[in-house]
Specification:
alpha/beta, Rossmann fold, Helicase, Ruva Protein, domain 3, 3 domains, five-stranded parallel β-sheet, 18 helices, 46% helix, elongated
């Protein structure tokens, strides 16, 4: 990857020499000139990532260079440098698109910081543009990633999509299991058919049976008309069973029969209905362990787990954090009609250092709240109260100094969020980026049902 290319314009040779030395040591490719007229030619002939220009120069001044630079290359950032600072000149420069206004005599660290922030702003904007172009070209569901492991997973998903086998998608809450299911469906020969989805963890056994299998008129009190179940309504397409491991043993038996016989018997019916449906299922639990301990039927496991796709947690995909954060920022700023364009460098650092127990869904919620709170064009650390003072990856260690397990980290974080919300489970679920049912299961699993960690 080529280093950022920077153009420096100043009529003082000493100033140019100092800036060339400072920025050259940072690894940037630096071009310099003392002539504003020559700078105009350079701007038209070459593509620069950043322009640093003095304000007052003979013939062609900094304002003219700023105006021309933005005309030729709107993505090029411009930093104005001057020894004759006034409020009006600063305001004018910012209105014309300058990203920084540095006053002479400046400190070296001040210049380094301004240059670094300007280049990061340009990089984020370019990544956002690339994302929008990829989304525009994508057919249907697009999963955004720069992570090599995720790209390999998506390649496998595309291959699996061409078959008609059952697929089991595993991964933590918020990693995008339903999104991956839609990704597979839209790339399969069944794409023209319907995709039906149901969360098995939010229904009682009777309600889930009615939802999946449907019923005949008069099958029970209140059944005043025939209802087609989700399995039958997915004819020719795909049925996605989220949190399938939450099914009761009796429901597991019924689902096994559907998979084996390729038919469904609605409640109150005497004859089964033949079906042509592909099944995708998902869970955030350890399925192999559940089968071993008797919590999930082994025969159903083999039927529904012909192919397994595991979505890694966001903490194992650090390259995607910045990418997804900018994507969500663009989406929510557009939806709210707010001019929020970028994330401050310290915000990106905090996000990349955070373990994200709620994964992509939690990141999405964090960015949405930040856009709500932001007042200018940039999200600052103050707009992310849930991350202020929160432990990052480096703090994910046990008291004895050893690394914590994922379960230990998740339990600790959920306990902290509950304390922060005063035990308000709805608010805690919102902050964690999960639904109340998922939070309830985690509280039960980690013995946090009282809302506080147990001793």
């Amino acid at each position: 990857m080529n280093p950022p290319k920077i153009l420096i314009i100043d009529d003082e040779q000493a100033a140019i020499r100092n800036l060339q030395h400072i920025l050259g040591k940072e690894g940037y490719e630096v071009v310099a000139t003392r002539s504003g007229q020559n700078a105009l030619k350079l701007i038209e002939q070459h593509r620069f990532d950043l322009v640093l220009t003095d304000l007052r120069m003979p013939n062609v001044d900094g304002m003219e260079l700023l105006r021309r630079s933005k005309q030729v290359s709107p993505d090029t950032e411009v930093i104005m440098i001057t020894g004759y600072a006034t409020i009006s000149s600063a305001v004018s420069a910012m209105k014309m698109g300058a990203c920084h206004y540095v006053i002479k005599p400046y400190k070296l660290d001040e210049v380094r910081k301004a240059v670094r922030e300007a280049l990061e702003k340009r990089q984020l904007r370019q990544e956002s543009t690339d994302l929008k172009e990829r989304l525009a070209k994508a057919q249907g569901v697009a999963i955004l990633t720069e992570d090599p492991g995720m790209r390999k997973l998506l390649d496998t998903a595309c291959e699996v999509a061409q078959s008609d086998c059952s697929v089991f998608i595993t991964g933590e809450s918020g990693t995008g299991k339903e999104l991956l299911a839609r990704f597979i469906h839209e790339r399969s020969p069944r794409a023209a058919g319907p995709l039906k989805a149901v969360n098995c963890g939010v229904f009682t056994e009777d309600l889930l049976a009615n939802e999946l299998f449907g019923h005949e008129k008069g099958a029970f009190t209140g059944a005043d008309r025939h209802k087609i179940g989700l399995i039958e309504s997915a004819e020719g397409g795909t049925l996605f069973l989220d949190e399938v491991t939450e099914m009761t043993p009796a429901m597991q038996v019924k689902l096994l029969r559907v998979l084996q016989e390729k038919e469904v018997l609605p409640l109150g019916a005497t004859e089964p209905v033949k079906i042509n449906v592909r099944f995708l299922a998902a869970t955030n639990r350890d399925l192999t362990r559940m089968v071993r301990e008797g919590g999930f039927r082994q025969d159903l496991y083999f039927r529904i787990n012909v192919m397994n796709l595991h979505l890694p947690p966001l903490s194992e995909r650090p390259r995607d954090i910045r990418l997804l954060a900018q994507f969500f920022l663009d989406r929510f700023s557009a939806a709210m009609s707010k001019p929020v364009r970028s994330l401050a460098p310290e915000v990106l650092t905090r996000l990349e250092d955070y373990s994200f127990p709620g994964n992509v869904r939690e990141l999405e919620n964090i960015i949405e709240r930040a856009v709500v709170l932001a007042r200018g064009e940039r999200v600052e650390l103050a707009h992310l109260p849930e991350l202020t003072g929160r432990a990052g990856r480096a703090a994910a260690r046990s008291e004895s100094g050893g690394l914590q397990s994922l379960d230990q980290q998740e339990r600790l974080h959920i306990g902290r969020v509950l304390e922060q919300t005063g035990g308000n489970k709805s608010k805690a679920a919102e902050i964690l980026g999960i639904d109340r049912v998922s939070l309830w299961r985690k509280l039960k699993r980690f013995n946090l049902e009282s809302g506080k960690p147990s001793a």
